Amino acid sequence: MATRPKRRRLAKTGESSSKTQTCKAFPQDPSVPATNEDRSRWKGFCEIESEPAFFNVMLREFGVEDVRVQEVVSLDSEMLAYLPVALLNIVNNIPGLKLGDHLQQFKEFTADFTPALRGDAIGNFEFIKTIHNSFARKMDMLNADLQLKNDASVRKKSKAKDSDEDNAGFHFIAFVPVQDKVWKLDGLERQPQNLGDSRPIISDDWVSQVAPEIETRMAQYEDGQIEFAILSLVQEPLTKLVADLAENVKGIAAVRQRLVQVQCGQGRPQSESTEGRNLAEQDTVVGPCERYRLSPEAIDQAALSPELEKQLKSDDITDLEAAIQHLNTTQASIRASIRDEVKAIQADDDRAASRRNDKGMLAIGLLQVLERMGRLRIFMESACCS
User: ∠ at Cα 78 (72, 83), nearest 5°?
Assistant: First the structure.
C-alpha cells in the first residue's frame, strides 16, 4: 500500500547552493537525458509511479519467477501479498519462490541481519539499484536531490523532527503472511509488526486481517489529502496456463495411443479418423511448442486427471474420440489465454521501455517552438486554468 502526501512547494532556501551541487553531480547540460554513467554515479533511488507494468519488468529483471503485480480493486482473498516499493520484503518471504541467483545470494547473506542492517544492505545492493534506477530520468534525479537538500535545510532551521506526513511520502507498506501470522512491513518502522494473533491464519483468508489496518489508515486522512495505491503480488497466470497446456497435450497423446490400441484389438483399420482431422483443423498442439512456451520437461512432468485416467480404460472408440474432441476444445481456450498473457507481458515491456526513455529534450524542444511562435504564455495560462 503506497501513501502519498500532497506535493509541497520547494522552499527557496538553498536554491543557489543546490544549483552548485547539481552541477557537481551532473556536469553536463541538465536538460540532456541521463546516461548509464549518471545513474550509476547517483547515490539515490528514484521515485517510480505506482504502475504494475514497471514492477513486473523489475521482477523479471531481478530474476524472480512465477509472480506478477496487479492493481487491487477490492480487498478480496485471492492475493498473495501487497507490494512494497523495493519488492524485496515480499518476495523474500514467499516460501519456494524462485528468486534468481542475485536475490537468493542476498537473502542468504542477510539472513542473520537485523531489519535496519538489512535495509542498509539493500541501499548498497548495486544489482537492485541498477535495475531500479534504470527508470530514472535526469529530472527525477535532480528533483530528488533538490527536495532532499531543501528538506534538510528546513529541518536544520526548525530543529524539529519530521511529521508523520513528511515521513510517509511516497513509500509502500507491505503485508505478508509468514509462519501462520500476518506481518506488516513498513520501512519507516524499526521492526515488522505482527497483525495476527496466536492462532494460525487461514491461507485463503489472511487478507481479512489486513483490511481493517488498511481501512483505518486511509480513514485517518481527509479526501484528497493523501493518495493511496493498493497493489498485490499474485501468481503469474501464464505459469498455470502453460502447466494446463502440458497436461492437455499429454492427455491427447495418451488418449490417441489408447485409441490406436483399441482399433488394433478390434481389427479395425487405422485410417485418418475424425479426431485426426480435428487436430489439424484446430492447430492443436501435440508436443513441445516454443510459441506457447511449452517444453518437453513440462509435458513429461504433467499429471493426468483422475477423470481422464478413467476414460483411458474405455474400449469404446466413440467415447475415446469424444474425449479427444473435448481435449481439443479445451486446448483452444488455453492457447487463447496464453496468447493474451504473452501480449500483456509485452505491453508491460513496452510501457517500461517508454518510461525509461527520457523525453526531457523533446519536451524542452516543444516549449522552445511554442516560445518562438509566441504561444508559450497562452499555452501555460490555458494549462493553469484547466
Answer: 50
For Cα atoms 189, 191, 193, give the angle at the middle one, nearest 5 degrees: 90
Which cell numbers hold the place of 188? Answer: 519507516
Q: Which amino acid is at 84?
A: P
Closest C-alpha among 128, 127, 129, 106 to residue 118: 106
Task: Report the amino acid identity of residue 212.
Answer: P
Note the pLDDT of residue 28.
60
Q: Give Cα 139 distance to the centre of its chain.
A: 24
Question: pLDDT, tens digit, for every residue of 212-225?
Answer: 888 887 777 666 66
Give the DSSP letter string of 176-231.
EEETTEEEEEETTSSS-EE-S-SSPPPTTSTHHHHHHHHHHHHHTS-TTTEEEE-E
Say if pTM beats, i.e. exceeds, 0.85: no
What residue type is 217 in one-letter code?
A: R
What are the tens digits of pLDDT across the range 239-263?
999 999 999 999 999 999 999 998 8
